[in-house]
């Protein structure tokens, strides 16, 4: 169920193939051992228009949504694993960050739940 959104400056696709970037983040998330195979969904958005500290410096920001219930330590370990993989692969990118956000179970819905409720 986890949803991972990768936001990057478009220029980075000249340095790293977008498919490789998605795979890199997916593998780092799976390496955390917090998720079962097939659970993590990763999407990538490339940005043409942005400002990083007032300049057009390259950036990567990852937003990781998961159902509430993980500890802060688990979320920090996930964040450090993904950021670490990105920094190792793209050492020249200064702005690399990740935010882990809880999804309230009470408010979350998906296709399966919808069909089960019909």
TrEMBL record:
<keyword id="KW-0413">Isomerase</keyword>
<dbReference type="Pfam" id="PF02962">
    <property type="entry name" value="CHMI"/>
</dbReference>
<dbReference type="InterPro" id="IPR004220">
    <property type="entry name" value="5-COMe_2-OHmuconate_Isoase"/>
</dbReference>
<dbReference type="GO" id="GO:0008704">
    <property type="term" value="F:5-carboxymethyl-2-hydroxymuconate delta-isomerase activity"/>
</dbReference>
<dbReference type="InterPro" id="IPR014347">
    <property type="entry name" value="Tautomerase/MIF_sf"/>
</dbReference>
<protein>
    <submittedName>
        <fullName>5-carboxymethyl-2-hydroxymuconate isomerase</fullName>
    </submittedName>
</protein>
């Amino acid at each position: 169920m986890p949803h991972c959104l990768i936001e990057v400056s478009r220029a980075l696709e000249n340095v790293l193939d977008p498919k490789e970037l998605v795979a890199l983040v997916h593998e780092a998330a799976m390496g955390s051992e917090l998720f079962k195979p097939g659970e993590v969904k990763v999407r990538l958005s490339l940005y043409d228009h942005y400002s990083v500290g007032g300049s057009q410096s390259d950036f990567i920001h990852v937003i990781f949504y998961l159902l509430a219930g993980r500890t802060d330590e688990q979320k920090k370990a996930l964040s450090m694993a993904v950021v670490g993989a990105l920094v190792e692969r793209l050492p020249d990118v200064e702005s690399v960050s990740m935010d882990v956000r809880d999804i309230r179970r009470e408010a979350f819905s998906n296709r399966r739940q919808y069909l089960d409720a019909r």
